[in-house]
Fold this sequence. Notes:
The chain has 82 residues and is an alpha+beta fold. The protein has two helices and four strands; from the N terminus they run βαβαββ. It has helices at residues 14-27, 44-53, and strands spanning 2-8, 28-38, 57-61, 76-81. α1 links the parallel β1 and β2. The longest helix is centred in the first third of the chain and has 14 residues, at 14-27. The radius of gyration is 13 Å and the shape is globular.
Amino acid sequence: xxxxxxxxxxxYEDEHVELLAHFINAxxxxxxxxILVNPGRGKKNKLSTKMIELGFSSVHQKxxxxxxxxxxxxxxxxxxxx
Length: 82
């Protein structure tokens, strides 16, 4: 079990939402922070809904300081706390 779970670019298909949420829930301690970088494939709201159902709070943030990237970053940093 973990106090902190970090991941990036994990959601490709709708069925990944359920798999990822249950994986996180199975490996998270009762008090846990989860930080995921999502590149913007339209799955963040579905994941957040599922994580809230599992007892986590949810915050989405656009990353700061992305001016070094050749194109605008379309994604979000997703933070879940329990």
